[in-house]
Amino acid sequence: MKKVVVKLEVYDEKSKKKAMKIVSSISGVNSVSMDMKDRKLTVTGAVDAVVIVNKLRKICCTEIVSVGPEKEEKKKEEPKKEEKKEEPKKDDKKKEDQVAELVKAYKAYNPHLTQYYFVRSVEEDPNACVIC
After folding, report:
1. Which InterPro entries does the UniProt record give (predicted)?
2. C-alpha–C-alpha distance, residues 91 and 88, integer Å
3. Phi-psi region of 100 (alpha: psi -120 to 50; beta: other; left: phi over 0)
């Protein structure tokens, strides 16, 4: 289970509803919550952050804030303290570094491309069909 936090450029309820509907339609999503004050959308479930952002970029500008495991409630029954090894921490750092590299690479992606259309002029093409 992952927890993905995405910042959206949403200013009204209509855009918020669209974003919530798009994200909830993705398979693997367990819960979706939106904080309008900070304009952050929190998604939990077995989904990829890139898929979420690609779907949301069709309606508004989006930016990945954080991607990580879902935090479970801590139990109070932890009287036993075992010795902690530093090797698992190194693995966690490697995983965090990989996620950070993916986020940096994704920010380099520029989705706003202008499309150029070819418009044919009648004067340029004498064989074009014209009704007089």
Report:
1. HIPP, HMA_dom, HMA_dom_sf
2. 5
3. alpha
CB 4 within 8 A of CB 67: yes
Contacts of 69 (CB under 8 A, 6+ apart): 1, 2, 3
Note the pLDDT tens digit of each residue in 31-88.
999 999 999 999 999 999 999 999 999 999 999 999 999 876 555 555 555 555 545 5
* CB neighbour list of residue 61: distance below 8 Å, 6 or more residues apart: 8, 9
- Eight-class DSSP state of 72: P
What domains appear along the chain, each with residue ranges and CATH number?
1-70+103-132 (3.30.70.100)
Tokens of 115: 């499309």
